Amino acid sequence: MGGAAQRARLAALCEQEITVARMVEAVSDPRCGAVVTFDGVVRDHDGGRGVERLEYSGHPSAPQVLAEVAGEIAERYPDTLIAVAHRVGRLEIGDSALVCAVAAPHRKQAFVACDELVDTVKQRVPIWKHQLFEDGQSEWVGALG
Questions:
Q1: What global pTM score does this model have?
Q2: Torsions phi, psi of 80, nearest 5?
């Protein structure tokens, strides 16, 4: 399936809508019998408080770090194909914020690689979340750590 660089097929930070279908399309390959996806959507609550909306901001290095993470996961899991996107800007309840797909010949490898991909993105990519609550208050949450 090629080296890790060719198998990390998509890593994008964007302001426009991202979809699971787009991620699945990016990793589609007849050699893969499993495609595992993750769709992290904006929920209407956090810590018992109603959430009105979110605003994500990314450091200028975020696109590069996201691409590095995708490449590292592809390197760690041979025969996997990786696609990942994170949105920035204003997101409403139900919008997708972090979406990824991992394809592999077998399901276990796809599941494990997808799980590690999501965790690593949240740990390393410099993106911050500004939560706006229904009561008019807000808070910043670092996506790092």
A1: 0.94
A2: -105, 150
